[in-house]
Amino acid sequence: MKTHLPKVNLDQRKWxxxxxxxxxxxxxxxxxxxxLRGRNKPVYTPHMDAGDFVVVINxxxxxxxxxxxTDKEFxxxxxxxxxxxxxxxxxxxxxxxxxxxxxAVRGMVPKNRLGRVLMTKLKVYKGNQHPHAAQQxxxxxxxx
Length: 144
Fold this sequence. Notes:
alpha/beta; two-stranded antiparallel ribbon; four-stranded parallel sheet; CATH 3.90.1180.10; globular; single chain
C-alpha cells in the first residue's frame, strides 16, 4: 500500500498579518513558525511547504520576559581573528528590530533547504505600515 501524499495547492496560500505589539517574543515566534510550515492545515506534511505567508508589524514593540533585554546577547562573526561582535537585545532593537523576530523564527524552522524557503514567506516591519495590502491579508490574533 502506498503512502498518500497530499497535493499542496500553491494558489490557495493565504496572507496573515500579526501585530507584535505587547506579544512575548518566543510565543509569537512559535505561532509564526507553525503558520509558515502549515501545521495549522490538514494537508501538513513535514517535508513539504504547505504554509502561508506571514506579515509581522510593530516589530519594535515585542516583549521579552525576565532580564533578557539586558542579559541576552546576539553574536556575529566576520570570519577574521577577533571578529566576534556581541550585541544585547536593546542594541539590536534600537538598530534593526526586525532581526529579533526573524532570528527567533529562524531557530524554529528546519535547518535545511525547506527552512530557507519558509523564511522567504516571512515579512517583518517596524511600525504598523506594510506594503502587502494588495494581497488582502487577514488579521491573526496571537496570544499575548
